[in-house]
Specification:
The chain is mainly alpha-helical. The protein contains five helices and two strands. β1 and β2 form a beta hairpin.
Length: 118
């Protein structure tokens, strides 16, 4: 007796789902970096802290965290500025570098939730 197997490939659908999951994980990762950054951003009146935002370009799978005040870049780069305890320059660069693995883990977890077990 002959044995017959039937196989359907849904690779296109899987790629779409994996990409959506990766985008969601990236959003979670950028929100995590923003939260960590807000813990050390220089604080006077809170304007700089409130201007922080996380964004993801889902089509390009590119995430950003930014602060939008006229003095944000200067506050970030000037290492000689004095800040209240616990607040510092490089308030964006350090959290990005220190949380790199966390962001990657969040993305991977979302892809696994979408069904990939590789």
């Amino acid at each position: 007796m002959a044995q017959v197997s039937h196989f359907e490939w849904h690779g296109g659908e899987w790629l779409r789902q994996a990409r959506e999951a990766a985008a969601h994980g990236l959003e979670l990762g950028m929100e995590n970096v923003l939260a960590e950054s807000k813990r050390v951003v220089p604080l006077d009146e809170g304007t700089l802290e409130r201007s922080g935002k996380a964004q993801v370009d889902r089509s390009a799978l590119r995430g950003t965290v930014s602060y939008d005040t006229p003095y944000a870049t200067r506050q970030h780069e000037e290492l000689d500025y004095r800040h209240v305890p616990g607040r510092t320059a490089k308030f964006l660069e350090r959290p990005f570098n220190e949380n790199r693995e966390v962001v990657l883990d969040l993305i991977a977890a979302e892809i696994r939730r979408a069904g990939y077990r590789g």
